[in-house]
Amino acid sequence: MHELRLHNTLSGKTESFVPLRAGEVKMYTCGPTVYDYAHIGNFRTFVFQDVLRRYLKQRGLKLTHVMNLTDVDDRIIANAAAAGVGIRDYTEKFAQAFFADCKALSVETPEYWIRATDHIPDMVRLIERLQTKTFTYESDGSIYYRIAKFPEYGKLSKIDLTGIQAGARVDNDRYEKESARDFALWKAPKPGEHFWETEIGKGRPGWHIECSAMAMKYLGETLDIHTGGIDLAFPHHENEIAQSEGATGKPFARYWLHAEHLLVEGEKMSKSLGNFFTLRDLYGQGYKPSALRYALASVPYRRQLNFTFDGLRQATSSVERIRNFAERLRQGRFRTGSSSGMKERAAKALDDFDAGLADDLNTAMALAATFDFIREANIAMDSGDFGQEDVAAAQKFLDAFEQVFAVLQDNDAEKLRELGFAAPETKLTDAEIDAKIAQRQAARQRRDFAQSDEIRKELAERGIILEDSKDGSVRWKRK
Ligand code: AMP
Ligand code: ZN
Fold it and tell me: What is the mean pLDDT of residues 457-474?
């Protein structure tokens, strides 16, 4: 295993990653604000976080990962009030859609998936701690954080605080660097808005206090890793640091990892430009979850990801190539023994794969190692220079690949059905059908009936019916 190095926004450097307690990682991820369906930009960040969590586990680290659902913030309050429903009623649909989207993209469930509205008392207690330490003041029933009281304010986002007027306030949860001000920890209710009755008065939490309170509740006062998209570095994460470190006097998160944004065909995604996509929009156009996951994971997280339909089609064929190789390996019709150097070649591929991911999660490098290996192994297979004893080493490589990238298992049709989409239009050619049938026959010969049933099922899903005859031959017809 190579030394793991991660880029830390706090230091501005790529550093060796050493968790606070050897062998364990405590990680917090800002989850979605469930006021609408998540878009593919959001999932760029969530897939990056999933690749990170899978890779940490692959390295044998014991991970405690917390992801929240922001189910109360300015946008939710405003939308729920406009719709005349409670905030739980308003957010539930989007929360469920988010869970379903994660499942389709094989984004693993973190150890804790928690909701802000289940943690109001924790937020209130944290605000009280800040009050005791005089980090706060009140105005018109709201409670604000006094940034002048925290001299390190700005250390994450490196903003320039000169010229900021002491006591100037901002009430919105989201604002630009130029508007750095004292921010609201607790907001007095406006007519028609949802509020809680608490020890610090009637009202609702600001967005920033939510993550500080939830992260520290589950992970302790100092976390190893805190992640999010780059737009969260300011003000959200800067404010999380001010709140948490103000209250505890201890470092809040040791490594801050931020994913760069996804652009669509080189432009910022926006509804008015007509380039705004949810996952469902793309499934509706016939793209598969595995291709999307691959496209989102393939660009290293600190590079902007330029999402294009051409790229998505390439991702589709990359996934096919890896799946075909896995299938070829599974069929296992190789000569006995091993070929010279193939085991060593597989071990080198594994080492290169790990070197890529250890280098600040360079997924492009890890994928290059994957395709180099597949190409060479395919050439060896074509020339009969791949033996049965080489299968295990190649399979070990694919297992490591799958632990992190999670696109090998061919369950796209099933996932799409679960989301209510018909399977994509997949007309097989006669030659493709014959090849599938040959694979199935091979599986039956080695008494791998699970595999042969799987192939029959896959063909049936694509409208091909098989008829086994007594002499062992197979006929097929289209439905
Ligand atoms: P939100 O639901 O707005 O709180 O965002 C959820 C996550 O998606 C956050 O980590 C954001 O930083 C991230 N995010 C938002 N827009 C993009 C984008 N275009 N590309 C990548 N990540 C994004
Ligand atoms: Zn957050």
Answer: 82
CA atoms of 91 and 216, how far apart (whole Å): 24
Question: What sign results for the dihedral spanned by CA atoms 212, 215, 220, 226?
Answer: negative
Atom of ligand 1 minimally distant from the CA of 32: 2
Confidence of residue 390 (pLDDT cuts 50, 70, 90): very high
pLDDT number for residue 198: 98
Distances (CA, A) of 457 to 309, 437, 449, 450, 462: 30, 12, 12, 10, 9
**Rounded average pLDDT over 23-47:** 97
The residues that bridge with 368 in the sheet, in sequence order, are none
Residues with CB under 6 A from ligand 1: 30, 32-33, 41-42, 44-45, 70, 228-229, 231-232, 259, 261-262, 269
Atom of ligand 1 nearest to the CA of 229: 12
Q: What is the pLDDT of residues 69-115, one digit of tens each?
A: 999 999 999 999 899 999 999 999 999 999 999 999 999 999 999 99
Smallest CA-to-CA distance from 356 within 51, 65, 63, 62 is with: 51
- Closest-CA residue, ligand 1 atom 12, reads 229
CA–CA separation, 352 and 19 (whole Å): 24
Task: Tell me which DSSP letter residue 7 carries.
Answer: E
Pairwise CA distance, residues 299 & 40, whole Å: 14
What pLDDT, on the 0 to 100 scale, is given for residue 424? 53
The dihedral built from the CA positions of residue 342, 347, 352 and 357, taken in this order, carries a sign that is: positive
Per-residue pLDDT band for 192 (boundaries 50, 70, 90) equals confident
Which of 4-8, 162-166, 179-183, 232-236 has the weakest average pLDDT? 162-166
Contact status, residue 54 vs residue 293, Cβ threshold 8 Å:
no
Please identify, by atom number, the ligand 1 atom nearest to the C-alpha of residue 228: 10
What DSSP element (H or E) covers 306? Answer: strand 305-307
Nearest to 350 by CA among 386, 403, 388: 403
Pairing assessment for the beta strands 136-139 and 223-229 based on DSSP bridges: unpaired
